[in-house]
Amino acid sequence: MIDQRTFEGRRCLVTGGAGFIGSNLTRRLLDIGAHVTVVDNFSTGRRDHLPSSNRLEIVEADVHRSDTLGMLVDRTEYVFHLAAQVGNIKSIDAPVDDATINVVGTVRVLEACRGRAIRRFVYSSSSAIFGEADRLPIDEDHPVRPVSFYALSKLTGERYARLAAALLSVPTVCLRYFNVYGAPVEASEYSGVISIFLQRLTDRLPLRIYGDGQQLRDFVYVDDIVQANLRAAIAGEPGSVYNIGTGSATTVRDLAAVLMELTGLQGTIEEAAFRAGEVRRSVADIARARRDLGYAPEFDIRAGLTRFLAATRTMSAGPRSL
Q1: Domain ranges in the chain?
Q2: pLDDT digits (tens, 9 = 90+) for 66-113
Q3: Among all residues, which ones are annotated catalytic?
Q4: Rounded to an integer, what distance in angstroms lies between the CA atom of residue 311 and that of residue 298?
Q5: Stated pTM of the model
Q6: 132 near 147, Cβ under 8 Å?
Q7: What is the C-alpha to C-alpha distance for residues 235 and 225, in angstroms, rounded to an integer?
């Protein structure tokens, strides 16, 4: 449990704060008394993902070319950098955008933090950096072999962040997320498999599985990702990196079965060719995060999906506010 008093009255900057993970983090920070500035260009994030609060400021800007970052960081104690173009397949379609947003954007935010008295810079990285696993579970020292431009850009941003701790005295901690799911659901062909499956079940369409469906994934509920961000802001050594998942494996076919059971919606399986840029096995070793951050995932796949389905029903009923 995070002590609410840790962030009460503190000033936090969340880049990409109107997106899926960013909006969940923003709401949690507001819930525990923080003052939050969200920077987002709203290319995928949405204003209605954010609650109404007199402790929330929203700045519409691109992190890779904004002239206001220094001013915003001047009055910030904790920086959570989530702004990114997300998606392995999308990065292959648009590699220049991927590098500009994910690499240049990260460098711009790190440079804005240089010489300023921030307490912590938490960088959102990805398990995609590992490529195909040599061993399971994947620990932080596993070889990195990106197989998409997205994975490469997240690894590059991570290395900038870690070097910034040594060269610029920016107190960075990097978090490598495994397969994150939750609400709000983003309507995109690049959304996570859980969001896509749910939409296709709702629309009475076949569930499309790429390959044989035996791909192993570590599905981690977004509330656990938020927990990891809050813990990384107050623990861990600057320059360190942590895997954030559940430590448990689920096949894509098993995921489909559990989702159909929980929703009561039955769907057929449609197989398609395996997609370039995706790995077959990905499961986190979270021992380091447990030890250094006190991170402890609260949701296994069934509990997380139950919470996710309840959240989607709640959000479809109307906007949330504080």
Answers
A1: 8-317
A2: 888 999 999 999 999 999 988 777 778 889 999 999 999 999 999 999
A3: 150
A4: 16
A5: 0.93
A6: yes
A7: 15
**Measured in Å, how far apart are the chain's first and last C-alpha atoms?**
21
The hierarchical CATH code for the domain 8-317 is 3.40.50.720
Output phi, psi for 143, to 5 deg: -55, 145
Could you tell me whether strands 250-251 and 216-217 are parallel, antiparallel, or unpaired per DSSP bridges? antiparallel
Q: How many residues does the chain have?
A: 322
Q: Determine the Cα–Cα distance for residues 308 and 312; give it in Å rounded to an integer.
A: 6
Name the residue with tokens 């009561």.
264
**Residue the block writes with tokens 């929330």:** 56
φ, ψ for residue 104, nearest 5 deg: -60, -40
| Residue 162, C-beta contacts closer than 8 angstroms, at least 6 positions apart | 172, 174, 239, 241
Tell me, letter by letter, the H, E, C secondary structure of the chain: CCCHHHCCCCEEEEECCCCHHHHHHHHHHHHCCCEEEEEECCCCCCHHHCCCCCCEEEEECCCCCCCCHHHHHHCCCEEEECCCCCCHHHHHHCHHHHHHHHHHHHHHHHHHHCCCCCCEEEEEEEHHHHCCCCCCCECCCCCCCCCCHHHHHHHHHHHHHHHHHHHCCCCEEEEEECEEECCCCCCCCCCCHHHHHHHHHHCCCCEEEECCCCCEECEEEHHHHHHHHHHHCCCCCCCEEEEECCCCCEEHHHHHHHHHHHHCCCCCEEEECCCCCCCCECCECCHHHHHHHCCCCCCCHHHHHHHHHHHHHHHHHCCCCC
Token pair 């894509």 is found at 252
Which two structure tokens, joined as six digits, stand for 284?
């986190």
Per-residue pLDDT of 175-215, as tens digits, reads 999 999 999 976 554 458 898 999 999 999 999 998 889 99
